[in-house]
């Protein structure tokens, strides 16, 4: 968006490539959970023949094509260590480290856009021998426990069960289970209908499709939706309570039950790390490094500070944020020029 408005910028990335989570840590069967029309970045659509739900490799190619199309040149292997606003000079001062040479680089900017994502650091326990999950193919016939039932947890559990693993899942908190079709309908309706009305309709549709899941250990709430890919039908008998202790392959649960597993998959997600380096972000971010204000009023703070893609609205929200931020910066620059 900045390129389209001829606004110069610098983008830094601590990893050695774009979309590192998708390239290096995503499991094989992963697809975008939303239909492709809600997962496009600004000014570039998916190919006409692309499937409705984009597979991992095709999404990565889309990002590569996007970078090439708009000549985006991130400074890879560059980690921001601190970023502070100088009231006197009215600028953001960022100290970054080149992770290859260990050299410190200083950036000075009138505007700062935090786009490090909701998923900056793994939110999992430190356990020896831990490694990433790629496919359920190697777990056939084994007893496997999946911890947490967000979108990744539900899909991994389905993948394991499909490959013949004896799969159980821990539901640590209430979830609101929906289908991809229900979400697609909601995303379409919300463009013309009040959000509360759409939410009410989706809740009713979900209840009609899944019935009462509480008897299977899945409590429902109004939090972000978890999209079922067939998991609910497969693992209704395998839902377990919270874990109290792990001793090797033996897992103890809060209800005093014990089970033995050959493998444990932690699908406990990621967390924001913005507050570790951003020193003056209180105008836009909370203590968890996420927006203080609700969508769609979350993206702008004070002193030229913005955040993009942190409101838990996926790629659709990121695209909206990017357009608003670019236009606002253009407006600010025009005002500064007029003074």
UniProtKB/TrEMBL annotation:
It comes from Panicum virgatum. The keyword Chloroplast does not apply. GO terms for molecular function: flavin adenine dinucleotide binding; indole-3-pyruvate monooxygenase activity. This is indole-3-pyruvate monooxygenase. It catalyses: indole-3-pyruvate + NADPH + O2 + H(+) = (indol-3-yl)acetate + CO2 + NADP(+) + H2O. Belongs to the FMO family. The keyword Oxidoreductase applies. It comes from the Eukaryota. The lineage of its organism: Eukaryota, Viridiplantae, Streptophyta, Embryophyta, Tracheophyta. It holds the Pfam family Pyr_redox_3. It is an enzyme of class 1 (oxidoreductase). Its EC number is 1.14.13.168. InterPro entries: Auxin_biosynth/cation_transpt (IPR050982), FAD/NAD-bd_sf (IPR036188). Keywords: Oxidoreductase.
């Amino acid at each position: 968006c900045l390129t389209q408005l001829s606004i110069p910028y610098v983008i830094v990335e601590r990893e050695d490539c774009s979309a590192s989570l998708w390239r290096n840590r995503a499991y094989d069967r992963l697809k975008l959970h939303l239909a492709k029309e809600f997962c496009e970045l600004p000014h570039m659509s998916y190919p006409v023949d692309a499937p409705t739900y984009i597979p991992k490799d095709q999404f990565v190619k889309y990002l590569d094509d996007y970078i090439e199309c708009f000549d985006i040149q991130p400074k890879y292997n560059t980690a921001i260590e601190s970023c502070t606003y100088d009231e006197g000079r009215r600028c953001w001062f960022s100290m970054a480290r080149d992770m290859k040479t260990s050299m410190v680089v200083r950036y000075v900017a009138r505007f700062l856009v935090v786009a490090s994502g909701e998923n900056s650091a793994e939110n999992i326990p430190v356990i020896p021998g831990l490694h990433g999950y790629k496919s359920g193919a190697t777990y056939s016939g084994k007893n496997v426990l999946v911890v947490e039932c967000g979108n990744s947890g539900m899909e991994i559990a389905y993948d394991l069960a499909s490959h013949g693993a004896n799969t159980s899942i821990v539901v640590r908190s209430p979830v609101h289970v929906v289908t991809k079709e229900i979400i697609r309908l909601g995303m379409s309706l919300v463009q013309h209908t009040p959000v509360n009305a759409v939410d009410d309709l989706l809740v009713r549709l979900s209840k009609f499709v899944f019935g009462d899941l509480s008897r299977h250990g899945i409590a429902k709430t109004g939090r972000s939706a978890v999209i079922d890919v067939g998991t609910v039908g497969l693992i209704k008998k395998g839902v377990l309570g919270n874990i109290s202790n792990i001793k090797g392959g033996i897992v103890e649960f809060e209800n005093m039950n014990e089970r033995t597993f050959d493998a444990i998959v932690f699908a406990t997600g990621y967390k924001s790390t913005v507050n570790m380096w951003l020193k003056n972000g209180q105008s836009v971010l909370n203590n968890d490094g996420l927006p203080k204000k609700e969508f769609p009023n979350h993206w702008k703070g004070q002193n030229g500070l913005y955040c993009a893609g942190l409101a838990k609205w996926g790629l659709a929200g990121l695209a909206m944020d990017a357009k608003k931020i670019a236009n606002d910066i253009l407006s600010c620059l025009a005002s500064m020029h007029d003074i």
